[in-house]
Amino acid sequence: MYSESDLNQAVAAGAISAEAAAAFRDHVAIERAAPIADEEHFRLLTGFNDIFVAVAAALMLAAVAWIGGTITPWLGGLAVAALAWGLAEYFTRVRRMALPSILLLLAFVGGVAGALIAAVAVNAATIEAWVGAGNDTLARQVAGGIAAGICLITAGAAWLHWRRFMVPITVAAGAIAIVGVLIALVMSSFAGAQAWAMPIVLAGGLLMFGFAMRWDMSDPQRRTRRADVAFWLHLAAAPMIAHPIFQMLGVFDGNVQPGIAAIVLLLYVAFAGIALAVDRRALLVSSLVYVLYALYALFTRAGAVELGAAFTGLVIGSALLMLSAFWQPMRRMIVRPLGSIGSRLPPAQPALA
Q: Which carries the bigger pLDDT value, residue 224 or residue 65?
C-alpha cells in the first residue's frame, strides 16, 4: 500500500505529475465514496518483508538487552538504544520500511528510558541515604524530579530521532514523555497529589489532543507526513482522555448502576460526535471497552444473564457499522454548523474533479 507521503514524494521526484496525482486521488474518492482524508491512512506494512525484518530486529534487540543487562542493568537499555539507532540508519533512512521503523523508534526511546531507570535503581540506596528517613516531602520531590528528568531526557532522545529519521510516531513518543514530565512535576509538588492522578492524566490527554489537532489542521486534506504525525498523536491522546474519565466514574469498581451506565453511553455518544468532527476514530476505539462493559451490565441487570454478552456485541457492533457506513453524511451534519472552524477540518464530502 502506498501512502499519501509516497505519492507526494513521487510528485516531488518527477515520477508522476501533480495533475496525475490529483486525478488518482479523485478516482479513489469516487470509488470509495469518501475523500482521501477520511481513510486515515498510515503506513504499517510496505510488504511482508517488513514483518521478516521486524522479527529479526526484535530478536537482536532482545539479545543485546539480555547480554548488556547481564553485565550491568543500565547497559542493556543503552545497548538496545544504540542498536536501534544503527539499524534505523539503514532500514528507516535507506529502505524506508514502515513496521521496522516503528519498532526501532520504540526500541530506541524505550532503551534510553530503560537505561535511565536502571541507573536510578542501581543507585537507589545512595539516593535514599541522601534523602534520609522520615523526610517524606523531600523524598516525594526527589522522586518526582528523577521521574521528570527521565521523561525529559527521553523526550530529547525522541526529538533527536525525529530530526534524523522523521518517523511519524516519534512526535507522539516525545509528546508522551513531555506529558510525563508535567505529571511528575505536579505529583511531586503537592502532598496528596496521588488522589488527583486521574484528573492530571486527563489534563495531559487533553493537551495531547490539542497538539494533535494543531498538526491535523495544518493539513486538512491529509496529504503530507503531518497527517501521519497527527494520527499517532490522536492514538496516544485517546486512552489518556477515555481511561481517566471512566475510571473516575467507577466503571470497573463493581456493579455498574443504571445511572452510571447511562452516563457512559452518553459520553460515548459525545465521543462519537468529537470523532466525527475531527474525522479521527481513536477516541471511539479507546473508550469501546467501557461502553461494552456498561451495556453488558445493563443487559445483565435486565435479566439477560446468559445472552448479555451476545446482546451487547449485537447492539454495539451494529451501531459502529452504521456509524462507519454513514460516516460522511453524519460528518456533514456536524461540520457545517462549525463555520470557520469546520473549514479547517478534513472535508466532509469528496472534492471531485
A: 65
